[in-house]
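B., you asked whether I could sanity-check this one before it goes into the benchmark set. Here's the sequence:
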Amino acid sequence: MRAERQVLFWGTAAGLLILTIAMLKEILLPFVAGIAVAYFLSPLADRLVSLGLNRVIASLLIVATLAVVVIAAVVLVAPIILAQAQEFAAALPGEVTRIKGLLEIWARERFGPGFGGFDGQIDRASDALAENWASLAGWAATSIWSRSLAIVNFLALMLVTPLVVFYLLVDWHPMLEKIDGWLPRGHAASIRTLASDMNDAVAAFVRGQGAVCLILGSYYALALSAVGLDYGLLIGLATGLLAFIPFVGWALGFITATTVAIIQFWPELLPILIVVGIFLAAQAADAGFLSPTIVGSKIGLHPVWLIFALFVFSYLFGLVGTLVAVPLAAALGVLIRFALDVYLKSPVYQGPPAAALPVDPVSETEITP
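And here's what the prediction gave me:
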């Protein structure tokens, strides 16, 4: 009965937490962003403290440096990205027409007399895309404005997040000690072990995969811009940010960049091959060096589980859910593996212990002739 009460208590607490997050999801963005940034930068604060700086001064220095970097990025890079995004949105219908023309030329040469049926399929696909493009663009603009770039949310993100980061960096270790003091004493050791495993998994993503995303995004943006690819900066940064989804982010960026390169450079093959080579080199570097060295194998997430988590959390909690989907999926993975291990060692799985078989007295009696 005691175990049942504990399960009921923790299940109710988890349900109330999820309900609270769902109700407050529209105002949680600056706090979630602040927690993520503080978690990412807490080792740097520890390092500065070990060098002799006061914790408050170290935290203030980190936040000030971060603010300068963000302001510089907004002033220097954001206008270019917004301009490329606007150009891409305006040029997409015309680019679709160009792709249609290239496909018609290729199909006419390949299919000959049978080109008519294929041409009809191309027309239907392009007409459907043209009809849906306006509504799709309108939906995307409305979604972006209402969820992430509304004036109130933007100001809150810019003003509240640095304060959250500063106070969390200052109080990081006292906060962890306070939480440790709240643990139920009978299960404190097990919870600490689980928390350590979850910290390893989440840190591997937030710090390790976050660093990989920054490296890959910078590489893609610089390399594609150097080639002269239209919207190269936009495509490169987006591909780097999507690198936290194994293979999916790379595949989307590869398909987009290759398609734009074909439209822009055809019939010249060399620039197209260079774009393809940029993505193949990045994938090889990521798989062979970056992820094994920086991230390691601590995340332990299957790509299908990761994609599922992104869909579920973004559906339930919007933009906030998208930001926390992978760290929460990593933490849930640790809990599920722990629960499965407990189940496999329990009598529920193994069954009750076998009773000792009765000894046959006849078999132990020595029979003499």
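One thing to flag: Residues 40 and 207 are 6 Å apart (CA to CA). Otherwise nothing jumped out at me.
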